[in-house]
Amino acid sequence: MNIIICDDRIDDRKNLLDLLSDYGEKKNYEFDITEYDSGEQLCEDQSALEVCQLLFLDINMQGMDGLKTAMRIKEKCPKLPIVLVTAYMNYALDGYKVKASRFLLKDNLADTIEECMDDLIVEMKKNSRILEFRFVEGMIKLYADDKAVVIL
Q1: How many other C-beta atoms can be found within 10 angstroms of the C-beta atom of residue 22?
Q2: Statement: the pTM of the whole predicted model exceeds 0.90
Q3: 3-state secondary structure of 86
Q4: Counting runs of H as helices and runs of E as strands, what totals does the chain give?
Q5: What domains sit in the chain, N to C, each tagged with a CATH number?
Q6: What is the pLDDT of residues 51-81, one digit of tens each?
Q7: Over 50: is that where the pLDDT of 140 sits?
């Protein structure tokens, strides 16, 4: 699973990276995690956003804050699950404006990350459909969404 962490504080990025790595090892998931230190940097990397399957986004960042970053990303990637992470509870309601999938407080990430990831992975599996076609040359996987029509 391709995951992006965007936070302007390196200690907070490392903490979340460690928690996600521990979760992946415990649950036997393989994560490819990319880090960004600003909303501007993240929004400029469209190719990373196109393959991203889950985004952890700090709200209170220098420059473009997490809410503005989330709004820009949702315009281009409306189905991308975004988990807003912050040290300030007063931002919780703002998460609804950007249709955040979850809201986590930095103070208790170690206690909440597993439940968050369990729920998100179940939701993502439910919403994704994969069609596999096996040929002599190999296998092709097609990912379909609700708008796809498959004619057999």
Answers
A1: 13
A2: no
A3: strand
A4: 5, 7
A5: 2-144 (3.40.50.2300)
A6: 999 999 999 999 999 999 999 999 999 989 9
A7: yes
